[in-house]
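Lab meeting prep.
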Amino acid sequence: MATRGWESVSPTELARRTAREHVTPAGHQKYRAQPCIVTADGTVFTAEQIALAESASHDPLIGTGTLRERAARVGIVGDWFASIKEAKRYIELRAAVKAGLILDLRCQVPFDLSVVSRLDRQEHTIGKWIADFVYRRADEIALTTEDTKGCKTPLYLRSKKHFQAQYGLTIVET
């Protein structure tokens, strides 16, 4: 009996071959241009990312369900955000930067939390708190630290008190 030649191919190899065919089908270009918005500072937002962030407020699942269900990671131009709410806030802050309302926008800024030991009178770092956004309002000198919260855990509340006592800054919760 004659064989057709594909009987000795494993299912894994067959899946690899079909996946390769779907990536670059014959007659199509390998790289396709996609519509996007480029800001003055060179940040690129694809149309899908903007639509996703704008539609987040209309999504009935936002604000309901467990924390794990609400916190879907979102990527915007290589920056990853812990939730759709945080990504939408980033787009709002980028618009405020463009309008000149805020300056020096930074994302995911770590702050060391430290204590002074009674025994040796030296400062020891015991942890860190990461602010979602840090920026300076155009009409103020002080920094604004912002944290996008869906659920205030006991660890967050303790870190918030420690941060505010150590740095003298307040945390704006959105």
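Slide two material, second protein:
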Amino acid sequence: MPALSLRGLTKSYESVLAVRSCTLDLWPGQIMGFVGPNGAGKTTTMRCVCGILSPTSGRVRIAGHDLGDDPIGAKASLAYIPDDPKLFDALTVWEHLEFAAAAYRVAGWKPKAEALLDRFELAEKRKALTMELSRGMRQKLAIACGYLHDPALILLDEPLTGLDPMGIRVMKESMRERAAAGAALLVSSHLLALVEDLVTHVLIVVKGEQRFVGTTAEARTAFATREGAALEEVFFSATADRPTDNSTPVNGS
């Protein structure tokens, strides 16, 4: 089954339509780049998917759990890491992992937490309060906490912001590893050159409307003006002022 299934997801704020009828399937092992100009509705869509915001209409299913009918099951199957994670300043790095393990009822979590600390170069900071961490370290801690319960769906909003070159490499490797292990990832980023070699699929939105969803190869076929075009070129072509094309849902390919 899809890790994420959206059918007609719509979110409006009084007279403002932030997300209009988003429909897609994201399958295990896929990494979808979620791109669009500022104000296109990317963060609103993610917040609706993870239950922070209530959709105005439409359905959200996460790993087979309907978010409206089974919110606990749906939320237990995902991890959401926003662009500016809000951590607990009075807790240490290790205590954050302990809290995440308790919240998601992760059995035998300590070896997994130790491995994540090593993976994200946080082992030496395990006793540090999060208020003492740099922006990049806070980002890595939030992602480590999100990975701890092995979610089926991982939502990442600008995950590379604030990271140094080594941190970016480690982060991208970790995302590939999660996909290889069977998770599906939805990655929102303006750093198209950095995520181009990472994503397998792309969702392009403009002013809340779904302009394209499909594989990166299909996106190039639809929008590129030359062979071997970079994802950035595809993005500019796709977001040009033209009628919206709501493509069919992503299949299992």
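Talking points for slide two:
The first helix runs from residue 42 to 49.
The first strand starts at residue 4 and ends at 13.
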